[in-house]
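User: quick one, sequence for these tokens?
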């Protein structure tokens, strides 16, 4: 799928005339954080502010998030991690008092630009929440949901199976696809929600504390799964569990109270030798 699917008819024909250039234009490569070779930015924010009424929750955040890696967002409760995550697929649009300033681009396309359809965007940037939230529908219908609103014209059952396999759930549910998603265990429900998010073949999967409502075994299955998902997707995960961030992420962004991004770097660097004293204090548990 291409970025063109984000836009309505008019913008789409314009972007089609650019061929693939719209997809790659403005996509910076960065190699400055010590990875092997250049990496491609999939989503970028520039001077992003978010307000709820008069209260600022995100303060001037500029960030380039590389594709096919796990980026963890950490920081004390209330520092704006969920707010930031929701900016990346325009979920904040659904909050009346929320207002954003600045720019968010997906492969160079301004996702708040004219002609961008938020529903199409949310298929490209799927989301998984803290509390598993399957629909009160069958397992199959849960996964097929995004395909159906998209008017998917391929083999829905084949795609449902593919998504359930990718979410490491197929073997456990293949004989009960018609049963309610709500009958599954918490960990299975969360993998079902991951299958639902990836069925439309997104670019990015956002996860907001996806394991904090799960027991340790179920949580560890999700961590293993995230490791596999980054082969095909970019994963951006909020976690309040620093050990989890250290285990599963390639880079870590540390937000602190007031919605400021204090440091964003390779996970090893953040945990072993951060530049900012406040990050060091946070990591070592002096506050937060
Ligand atoms: N829907 C909302 N309406 C008003 N204020 C909100 C809303 N959601 C979050 N906030 C406020 O924005 C700040 C950041 O919240 P949040 O993004 O949930 O932080 P975190 O996920 O890091 O705990 C907090 O001060 C919170 O009270
Ligand atoms: Mg949160």
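Assistant:
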């Amino acid at each position: 799928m291409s970025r063109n699917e984000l836009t309505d008819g008019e913008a789409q024909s314009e972007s089609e005339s650019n061929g693939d250039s719209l997809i790659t234009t403005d996509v910076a490569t960065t190699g400055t954080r010590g990875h092997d070779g250049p990496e491609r930015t999939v989503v970028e924010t520039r001077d992003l502010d978010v307000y709820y009424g008069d209260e600022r929750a995100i303060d001037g955040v500029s960030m380039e998030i590389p594709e096919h890696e796990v980026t963890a967002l950490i920081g004390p409760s209330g520092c704006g991690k969920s707010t930031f995550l929701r900016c990346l697929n325009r979920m904040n649009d659904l909050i009346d008092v929320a207002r954003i300033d600045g720019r968010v681009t997906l492969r160079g396309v301004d996702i708040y630009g004219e002609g961008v359809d938020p529903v199409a965007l949310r298929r490209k940037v799927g989301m998984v929440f803290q509390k598993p939230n399957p629909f009160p529908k069958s397992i199959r219908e849960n996964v097929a949901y995004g395909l159906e609103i998209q008017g998917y014209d391929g083999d829905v059952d084949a795609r449902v199976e593919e998504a359930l396999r990718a979410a490491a759930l197929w073997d456990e549910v293949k004989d009960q696809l018609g049963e309610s998603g709500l009958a599954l265990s918490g960990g299975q429900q969360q993998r079902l929600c991951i299958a639902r998010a990836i069925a439309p073949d997104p670019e990015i999967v956002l996860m907001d504390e996806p394991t904090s409502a799960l027991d340790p075994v179920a949580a560890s299955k999700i961590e293993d799964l995230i490791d596999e998902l980054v082969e095909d997707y970019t994963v951006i995960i909020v976690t309040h569990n620093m050990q989890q961030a250290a285990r599963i992420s390639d880079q870590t962004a540390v937000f602190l109270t007031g919605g400021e991004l204090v440091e964003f770097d390779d996970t090893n660097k953040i945990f072993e030798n951060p530049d900012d004293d406040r990050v060091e204090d946070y990591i070592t548990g002096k506050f937060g």
